[in-house]
Amino acid sequence: MAGKLSKEERKALIQEAEKERAEHPVKKTESGFATIDKAAEKLENEN
């Protein structure tokens, strides 16, 4: 970037990012261990 942003510019960027997050929420993903546990349980149920 060419230089520092002013407070107003920073505030506008933050508001824009918050608006974007509100419109397109990120789904919470499971941890790696939860995924492994589910796969193991599925395999146990198949046998």
TrEMBL record:
Region named Disordered: 1-35
Biased composition (Basic and acidic residues): 1-30
This protein's name: Uncharacterized protein
Organism per entry: Lacticaseibacillus mingshuiensis
